[in-house]
Amino acid sequence: MKRLIGVALALGLGACAQGNLSSSSLFTQSTPRPEAVVVTDVDLGSDVVLLDPGFSARLQRKTANMAPHVIREQLNERVRQEIVFSLIAGLRDAGMQASEGSEETTSLSQPSLIVAARVRGNGQAASRGQRSLFSSAAGAKSQVAADVELSFFSSGGKKPATTFVAEPDAKAKIGGNISGVTMPEKLSPEVEAAARRIGRGIARKIVEYAREKDWIAKSEAPEPKPAPAPAKKPPKKPDPDKQDS
Description:
Rossmann fold; 5 helices; 5-stranded mixed sheet; globular; single chain; 7 strands
C-alpha cells in the first residue's frame, strides 16, 4: 500500500512539474523578431506651437491668397513628415527594415513592430505658462518630448509591446538630405533641426528596445585609441656667439 501511495505521489509531482514548466515557458518565450517596422501615426500635440515665417512666406509666394489656417496646416504636416522620415532613417541606420504605413496595409503574415508617437511639450515651457515651440527664431530651443507606443502585429493579432518617452537626440546628425526622400518644401534650418532631433530620439529608444530583445546585434563600443605620444623636441644647438665669448 505504501509503495502504491509513493508511486502515485511521484506521478502527481511529475505532472505538476511538467505543468509548471510549460506555463513558465509560455511567459518566458521571447517575442519573435519583427520582419518590419511600420510607423503608422506621428502627431503633434495642441501644446506645440510651430513658428516658421520663412516657410510660410515661401508657401504664400507659390500659392497666392492661401488662408492662414491652411498655411498652419501645411506647416504642421511638413514638420510631421520631417519627424517621420528622420525616425525611419535612424531605424534603417541600425539595420531595421522601417517604413511609413498603416495597420490596414500591414500583412498579418509578416511579423511587424507598429510605432505610434505623439510629440508634446516636455513640461518646461508649461511650468512658465508658455507653450513649447518649434521656432525658426535665433537661439530658440524646442522644448518637446514624444510619448511612444510600440505594438507587435502578426497573425495572432495586435499586442502591446511597450511604451516610453523619447527626448530629442542632441547628438544626432541633422545636416543634409535624408536618403531616398524628396521633401516638397524646405523648412527653416532651426525648425528642420528640431524635427530631426526628436525623430532621431524616438529611433534611438526603439533601437535600444530592439537590442534588449536581441532583434538586432548589440553594438560594440570601439576600443579607445591611445593618446599620441608627445613629439620629442630636437636638442638645442649651441649658440656660436656664446661659445666665442
